[in-house]
Fold each of these.
Amino acid sequence: MSQAKFDIPFQSAVSPEVLDADTRIHFRCYKGISCFNACCKQADVTLAPYDVIRLKRRLGMSSTDFLAKYTVPFQMDQDGTPGIKLRTDDTGTCLQLNGDEGCGVYEDRPTVCRYYPVALLALREKGSAEAREQFSLVKEPHCKGHLEAREIRIGDYRTEQGVEEYDELNREWYQLILKKKSAGPTVGRPPETSLQLFFMASYDMDRFRRFVLSDNFRSTYQLTDDFYLELERSDEELLRFSYRFLRQVLFGEHSVQEAADAWEKRVAERKEVWDARREFELKRRAAAEDEKYRHQPDAESTPDQNPGDRPCCD
Ligand code: SF4
Ligand code: SF4
């Protein structure tokens, strides 16, 4: 029998028992239950890429603004892989909670909130980076939904909570993180630019779109005009493309064709940047030298000719 390793990426108070889609659980949550909103008042919600798309659209803001206003960053592993959580107030209450009405973004609530009290487990066979999805149950004392009589298959609970669409769009990202983990810790911290790229391509779709539609990107990667149009129009297509792009950049899995002279062009562009930087630095140093000599006392001048140099004035 093959050994397996379990990762529990998005919930922590989980029972160790691994469940599958056919497992039946007792659970029901509804407005009016005695603990209504208790979970949202101690929210610890990690967001996946598609969660951000749904929430920024719901709130009518750009992904960049949404990230700044409604999320907090954390490190997902010792390499500093960036993760984000929903921001709460000082008491731990989710900022999306709309008083006694419940979740203010219910139709677009994140994956973790949909799954609760089920936790999605990404399970990988030893020697494989591919994940299999299984589940576990989160049982927290404040949650009274477990005492309800209703029995439901986990598979049916997923359908009821609208999780499948989210999983479909986040699955490749989960795989990507598992693959990164299975590669082991990086020797030394990964370059800041690759962490920034991971952050942008995972969460900040509007910024990533500008990056992909830039002249620089277009001259480097050979994609058709129709495909670029699709990336311009659709967040979902852009997200799928971001996974391809991250696999290429992080793991060298080439699926985005680069222009034949892309490397030479990049070196030429870099050279322009390096030349400009060197020129700027030379000018800066020359200006600093000029400034230094301008403020030195002139041996020929008298104190009266340079009143600013006098130790005191009248
Ligand atoms: S997003 Fe909604 S369901 Fe999730 S913690 Fe916040 S208020 Fe609760
Ligand atoms: S039953 Fe659980 S999930 Fe539902 S409101 Fe109560 S604490 Fe939250």
Amino acid sequence: MNPIKSRRIIKKKAMDSGKDSYLLKTAPNDMAVCKTCGAVYHGKRWSLGKKIAPVLKKPVPVLCPACQKIRDNFADGFVTLKGSFLNAHRDEIIALVRNKEAHAMYHNPLDRVISVKSGKNTVDITTTTEKLAERIGQMIKKAYSGNVEYKWSADTKLARIVWTRDA
Ligand SMILES: [Zn+2]
């Protein structure tokens, strides 16, 4: 089944506004901390690796939007890597994707890789944000050239990226 199609049906049923339902669900009080990844919600944004100021009240333990999406396997970005070049460089390319995730997560803790599935001649990556999928596509194209195709859903909330390189 095409994940973009199935997701759009789910989204239509689940909500009527164009907003990210995960962001709305998690509108915690000013001070909250994700019990899974440790991201801190403060001043209306999530950040990682920041110390909580001691003057502030004890943070409320929650699950941040990215960890909720990972738990629910709810992707906004889909990246498919394929072509004969992939098989010879698979581990190296996957390591690069993981590296990119770590970097993206540092800047925005809501940018995460949900899954990396290695198939016979493909690698399928899902991400919590469409932006991270786009950046992974750009990065792989920059590092290994090849062809990259970007497709967006009509509301631009979902991205499907396909990278191909033969030989
Ligand atoms: Zn989290």
